[in-house]
Amino acid sequence: MILSDFHVHPDFSIDAAGSVNEFCEKALELRLGAICFTTHYDYNPALDKNSGYWKCKGSKVKLTDEVVGSYLEEIEIAKNSFRERGLNVYSGIEIDYTPGTEKEAERLRSLFKFDYVLGSIHCIEGLVFSDMEQAKEYFGNRTLAQIMDDYFNLLRMSAECRFFDALGHLDYFARFGQKYCGDEINNIDIKRFAPVFEILRKNGIGIELNTSPYKRGETGFHPSKKILEEAINSGVVISSVGSDCHSPDELGKGIKEGYLFLGSKKIIPKHPV
Ligand SMILES: [Zn+2]
Ligand SMILES: [Zn+2]
């Protein structure tokens, strides 16, 4: 079985370490067949036009088209040099979805050629719920019913965005919300996903199987197995398996488990070739 990791954050992300080349060397060591870089693109129209920062050649820089161009150039060089060594390298991006992101996603896709574009929700009502401090403010001041209404509303909107190839870590709210909302957040009525799955299926947009708990020494996937099964039964494409690694030592964590789970459902991830 040839395994690929399709959710990789190299050191262009402020919160990641390890160059494109270092990740590729590590991928060869792990005998992965392919690797796709998915640097965070945290454009947020609710804040300002270039709200995000990246790192470029070791320095913190404002996220501009020029920096995105340098990122893609570095991947292009790796594509050519690692292909002959048996590793396929893909250029991707993980766009943070907030209402209004559609225009920016369209502009980016018309300007650059990405092999794979993930759309992910990390932020609700201006609060980044995947940040420990902001999670406290977000989850601590709202009821679970309110949080779920907000989240599913956003999820439906992100599924409508035609500029994503797949949605990332579909139930990420559960990781950060459990501390404040309790176990109930892990048992959200599965039927709430039905309208989202219907949109994804109709628009040919996939979802990823995100194995990030494994890099923390835990088990399980985002979304959970139950949600993945429901997605598969609803005809949604599982387009990739990704570790969401932020350093080379996290690369490939949980990938084998993700492929084994999909294999048991007779599913092969439909990532770009
Ligand atoms: Zn993410
Ligand atoms: Zn990520």
Percentage of residues assigned to helices: 25-40%
Task: Characterize the biggest β-sheet.
Answer: 7 strands, parallel
The quaternary organization reads as single chain
CATH superfamily of the domain at 41-50 and 94-264: Metal-dependent hydrolases
Cα Rg = 18 Å
Bound molecules: zinc ion
Q: In total, how many beta strands?
A: 11
Describe this structure in words.
By secondary structure, the protein is an alpha/beta fold. It has a domain at about 40-50 and about 95-265: TIM Barrel (Alpha-Beta Barrel), CATH 3.20.20. It contains 9 helices and 11 strands. The protein has helices at about 20-30, 65-85, 100-110, 130-140, 145-160, 175-180, 195-205, 225-235, 255-265; strands spanning about 5-10, 35-40, 55, 60, 90-95, 115-120, 125, 125-130, 165, 205-210, 240. The strands form 3 sheets. A 7-stranded parallel sheet has the order 1-2-5-6-9-10-11. A two-stranded antiparallel sheet has the order 3-4. Helix 1 links the parallel strand 1 and strand 2 (about 35-40). Helix 4 (about 130-140) crosses helix 6 (about 175-180) and helix 5 (about 145-160) runs parallel beside helix 7. The longest helix is centred in the first third of the chain and has 19 residues, at about 65-85. The chain is globular. The two termini are about 15 Å apart. The mean pLDDT is about 95.
